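Lab manual, section 2.4: Encoding a predicted structure.

Procedure: take the sequence of the chain (211 residues), apply the prediction step described in section 2.3, and record the output as structure tokens. A sample record is shown.
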Amino acid sequence: MGVSTICRGTESHDIAYAVRVLRDGGIVAFPTDTVYGIGAHAFLPAAVERLYVAKCRPPDKAIPLLLSRVEALASVAASVPDLAYVLADRFWPGALTLVLHRAARIPDAVTAGGDTVAVRVPDHPVVQALLRELDAPLAATSANLSNHPAPATASGVLAQLEGRIDLLLDGGLCPGGVASTVLDLTVRPPKILRAGGIPAAQIAALCVEEN
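Recorded output:
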């Protein structure tokens, strides 16, 4: 594998370059409000499949989507419950991932053939700029080899993925350093699948209010 290109994620021309890489089917690493992630254009199945190879990720493990805004939910999920919008209004952009029924347009490569999709709107200027310019969801997961620690710095990304990704947007230290909380809204009552940046008590309070 070749050497990964490194750019400053704070520069507009670097964001534009990253968008070109993504539209050409490449893989880009970037900072988020939790940890560094790597992403591919969600509607390019071959690019998404490259994420599995780069991370040595099991093929039966789905990849979440990052969205630029709440309004994009309807484009990637079907039968979105009112509770999803209540939670999004409170915690997005932020460290909450919602599991919803997938829309028909989502490639099987994203969902590992399943009928659900995990989505969130991240709260970091670099990835937000990237999503706005791309004008499409990112299939994105933490920028680490599977079963290794998720990095909060650009150097941590390169320590694991040098040569496995096409581009790294260096945005400095990620402010969160903790992965997002994952909440499954396809079951009743909603179920937390992974503890993370949003405390379970805060989520439970809103779920109770909606019931």
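Check your result against the sample. The domain at 5-210 is CATH 3.90.870.10 (DHBP synthase).
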